[in-house]
Amino acid sequence: MCGIAGIVRLRDGSAPPDVAALRRMASSLSHRGPDEFGLYRDHQTGLAHARLSIIDLASGQQPMGNIARSSWLVFNGEIFNYLELREELRFRGCVFRTQSDTEVLLNAIETWGEDAFERMNGQWALALWNRQTQRLLLARDRVGVRPLFLAEHEGFLYFASEVKAIFAADPSFPRALDPAGLAQTFTFWASLAPRSVFRGVEEMPPGQVWTLERGAWRKHRYFDLAFSSASPAGDDDATLEQATWQVRQTLSRATELRMLRADVPVGSYLSGGLDSSLVAALGRKYAGERFHTFSLRFEDAEYDETEFQRLMVEQLGSEHHEVVVSRHDIARFFPEVVYHAERPLLRTAPVPLFVLSGLVRACGIKVVLTGEGADEMFAGYDLFREGKARRFWARFPESKLRPRLLDKLYPYLARSPVAQRGIAQAFFGRDLDKAFTPGFAHGTRWRTSGALLRLFSGDLRKQCDPAKYVDEFLATLPSHFGTWSSLAQDQYIEVRTLLSGYLLSSQGDRMLMAHSVEGRFPFLDKDVMALATALPDRHRLRLMDEKHVLKRASVGFVPDRIRNRSKQPYRAPDALSFVASPVQDYVEELMEEKKLAEVGIFDPKAASLLWKKCRERQANGQFSNSDNMALVGVLSTQLLHHSMVEQRPRCPDVQFFRTEVDFCEDKEPSESDPHA
Q: Do residues 260 and 539 lie in contact, with contact meaning Cβ atoms separated by under 8 Å?
């Protein structure tokens, strides 16, 4: 894994991209790749790379040029089927100088063009510059595991793995939060690409290729999640048994690739749930004698899963590492987490994962497997069960019995939304007449979080209508969306919003790369996703049993106590972390009316009243879902403004640039280019 950045001159007659700016961009991304740094520059374009060495440690440096030195690539990610692609390319006459997946990627694009991305099984964000055709190609993986941002400023295009690198490049770049991006975040939990939370900065959407040539952009989507519109006929027991075998085989191969396609040891996260336990069990046989596993524990018993983690460790025989996270830890690390997330957060869940990746790095491990993506692909979330129960109720809205299905939801919450039946039925009974329209299942979540916009300052509140952003998003759904089942529609929306924008970013890439750790996600393997989306609904969600086929596939790999336990989603203490004594100084400072007014995002009186209300309730720790999200959202936005708008990004002193290629000197590249 790595950090990439670049500058492209958009106006003839301007100076070439500035070397010092490229160095600052690489430096600001040094947490993503502390092992080696490289630069490329010609009169039109500059590329920068910060490397975390995983594959081909000796000769995989970037930027990497082709043999003709006409195309130059910077790449953040891994191509897990690179050995297979390499053999196919060798048969076509390609010559390789390294053992890296980067060189395979470079040759694949030159051979197959944009069709190359459909052949790749991996996770990536990349930039390929051809100095002869003056063509820039940018691409991002299928579901957005790896990030990529762009901005134009004073005749130059800037792009980078993180926004901080764009801000570091040019001190004159105007830094400001974008009201629409904030409104989307306070509705969907994340801004929806191409919009970001920073004015003038775009996030490249997943599954797309963008090319810039002669000043004109061409944007192409090469991948979009597609569900089967029909269920297979035949004996259900037979089709379920076949599906179980297919899931086990495909997931095993995906895990094998992610374990073996690395020149460093690969560990695994263990949450205590089905997904990470199954991935760790499948990965164990490829790990050799030593297999490192890592778990989060919580001081608060409501969130702790130690019992199940240790049960799995006993079966694996792994070298296990744990870290215990307290409310105080969450408050203490929250500013650093927001700086790395580069967006407001409505939950504190990313913080413990930031702490956990620090433990991974301290143990000398650079790569970990995680179970992310299983809930989206195999219908594991309560939202899917909730949607099914509400649609069942909607077919007979006068029924007194059908709403009782809601009692089966959220058993893990101390303050479950279904605990008080009358209130729950009023809440979940809204819009039953729209039960079979797009976004129905997500509507309750979007309304709850969108209501937080009432805290925005008057001017911003007038601009930000959550219903507007919901309608805009629903208008982007594919034309064949209506041919899918309701469950498939719910899963697709979850991938487009929560998975890509929040889980893989704020809880995934950013928290891992903050400590220079690469995450690998077998459930987001190309073939696993294709299989999961082709399964009939009844195999993913059987009655109210989520991930049914996955549970069957885990027999023999995961202990029955874990396989059969009630789902407990990963959570962390929210508002309680910030109000418990002693309160962190930065919290008091940022929640003062004066500071709130100075930043101008939130209504000072409304936000101050929220803070006062939460402080008064610290004794019993009783916070509503809305208050939890509101306090975390306001505080994280204030922190984001402080760290990314008021201040310039950190640029540590980076000394080691192994690869430097500069065609602006009107001479052949220096010997510091290892591929010369």
A: no
DSSP classification of residue 342:
T
Tens-place pLDDT, residues 153-197? 999 999 999 999 999 999 899 999 999 999 999 999 999 999 999
pLDDT of residue 349: 97
Dump pLDDT digits (tens) for 314-347.
999 999 999 999 999 999 999 999 999 999 999 9
Find the farthest-apart pair of alpha carbons in the chain and give their distance in angstroms, rounded.
81
Query: How far lies 628's CA from each of 261, 279, 281, 562, 571, in Å?
Result: 41, 32, 35, 29, 12
Task: Answer yes or no: are the C-beta atoms of 624 and 637 closer than 8 Å.
Answer: no
The CB density around residue 197, as the number of other CB atoms within 10 Å, is 24
Closest C-alpha to 516, from 320, 368, 304: 368
Q: What six digits make up the tokens of 239? A: 């089709």
Q: Which residues contact 607 (CB under 8 A, 6 or more apart)?
A: 455, 591, 593, 596, 634
Is the separation of the CB atoms in 177 and 601 below 8 Å? yes
The two three-digit tokens of residue 610, written as one number: 């929220």
Between CA 235 and CA 243, with CA 237 as vertex, the angle to 5 degrees is: 100
Nearest 5°: the CA angle 472, 203, 38 is 170
354: amino acid identity, one letter: F
Q: Locate the DSSP E strands across 30-179.
A: 36-41, 45-51, 64-65, 71-79, 122-130, 135-140, 149-153, 156-160
